[in-house]
């Protein structure tokens, strides 16, 4: 991709230790380090520091500080890393590179809260992000993004314009369909509405479109998952046994429709004691990791039960993109691993045909 001789702007820099240091870096998002082909240039500065420009194929900007420290330690020189995100096109759906379904086996586990904050965190990691609220039973994305009362608009009477929530493009089934109607919906109706929102919204170019799915694992969710050209799914669960049993059904459902489950998120995993600062595992510990291990999927995050999360949501704000919050770091770490898994999996998961009847 890049001729190595072109990587170096000055002859004096020793290239191999830098390439080696980048390749030795390990984290959850970079399980095999930084490949040489991602290096765009290396500059040997007059003050003896090194500037490395890299092109990342997935959103992971906020990890560059850690990478800088690691490389600096290895080569014993100050390092600055300038990262550009360039997610490879998958040609799956228009100019959307990855569609990610956020699902839950049961209602009320915090799926929508997790979906919007993951979207915010992906944006914080340097990606172009959209969110599509497909939860026909209770579309809450307008509330979570401070868009209540907004009216969908079209510039050309053909395509709907997505709403702009601080740079995140948003669309909701709630803008188009009265939620009272959801009780009478069947799978094909819901998946048609979802497809309509996908195809008739002018999303432009997106690295990641996060889809907030309806909770549950019935025929509606199955048909919707089957019809969307998704790169992967994330299942949100809480630590209680019942929620975990439902999360397991979610994994089985996505396996049936050939959508890879890229991870579990355990929400309301614990709370941090206000007095001693220790985590308290009210609903039990290790349930999600046990389930994840059984199915060979990672746990992307253990998100605490935190007043801040609810308060941000109520104000239509995203804690996932707030730089000053410890909780935002958890969402951002999850977003990086999600983005990295989508890049590395590169699996072919074309939809299988499942016939749903009305009986
Ligand atoms: N980690 C958390 N800490 C504190 N409150 C949370 C957390 N996650 C979600 N909540 C709160 O729990 C409530 C339910 O969350 P949310 O609407 O995201 O759940 P859901 O799974 O999408 O629900 P539904 O199944 O109805 O769509 C909201 O009031 C939200 O603010």
What's the short version?
The protein is built from eleven helices and 15 strands. The chain is 33% helix and 21% strand.
Q: Provide the gyration radius in Å.
A: 21 Å
Q: Tell me, what's the shape?
A: globular
Q: Report the portion of residues in β strands.
A: 15-25%
Low-confidence stretches: 347-359
Q: CATH topology of the largest domain, anyone?
A: Rossmann fold
End-to-end separation in angstroms reads 55 Å
Residue-averaged pLDDT: 86
* Helical proportion, percent range: 25-40%
Query: How many extended strands?
Result: 15
How is the biggest beta sheet arranged? 8 strands, mixed
Structural class: alpha/beta
* Bound small molecules, deduplicated: adenosine-5'-triphosphate
CATH architecture label of the largest domain? 3-Layer(aba) Sandwich
């Amino acid at each position: 991709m890049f001729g190595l001789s072109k990587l170096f702007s000055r002859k004096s820099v020793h290239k191999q230790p830098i390439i080696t240091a980048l390749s030795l870096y390990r984290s959850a998002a970079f399980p095999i380090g930084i490949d040489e082909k991602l290096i765009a240039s290396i500059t040997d500065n007059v003050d003896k520091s090194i500037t490395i420009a890299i092109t990342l194929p997935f959103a992971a900007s906020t990890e560059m500080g850690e990478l800088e420290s690691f490389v600096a330690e290895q080569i014993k020189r100050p390092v600055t890393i300038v990262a550009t995100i360039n997610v490879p096109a998958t040609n799956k759906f228009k100019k959307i590179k990855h569609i990610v379904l956020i699902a839950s086996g049961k209602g009320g586990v915090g799926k929508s809260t997790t979906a919007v904050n993951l979207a915010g965190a992906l944006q914080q990691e340097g990606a172009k992000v959209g969110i599509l609220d497909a939860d026909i039973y209770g579309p809450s994305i307008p509330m979570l993004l401070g868009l209540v009362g907004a009216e969908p608009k079209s510039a050309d009477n053909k395509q709907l314009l997505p709403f702009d929530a601080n740079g995140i493009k948003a669309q909701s089934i709630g803008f188009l369909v009265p939620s009272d109607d959801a009780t009478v919906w069947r799978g094909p109706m819901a998946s048609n509405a979802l497809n309509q929102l996908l195809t008739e919204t002018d999303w432009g170019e997106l690295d990641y479109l996060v889809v907030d799915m309806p909770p549950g694992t019935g025929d509606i969710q199955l048909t919707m998952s089957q019809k969307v050209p998704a790169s992967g799914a994330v299942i949100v669960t809480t630590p209680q046994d019942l929620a975990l049993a439902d999360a397991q059904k979610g994994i089985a459902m996505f396996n049936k429709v050939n959508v890879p489950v890229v991870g579990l998120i355990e929400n309301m995993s614990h709370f941090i004691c206000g007095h001693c600062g220790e985590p308290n595992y009210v609903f039990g510990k290790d349930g999600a990791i046990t389930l994840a291990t059984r199915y060979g999927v990672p746990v992307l995050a253990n998100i605490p039960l935190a007043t801040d999360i609810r308060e941000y949501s109520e104000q239509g704000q995203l804690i996932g993109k707030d730089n000053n919050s410890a909780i935002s770091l958890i969402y951002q770490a999850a977003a990086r691993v999600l983005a990295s898994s989508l890049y590395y999996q590169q699996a072919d998961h074309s939809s299988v045909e499942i016939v749903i009847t009305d009986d």
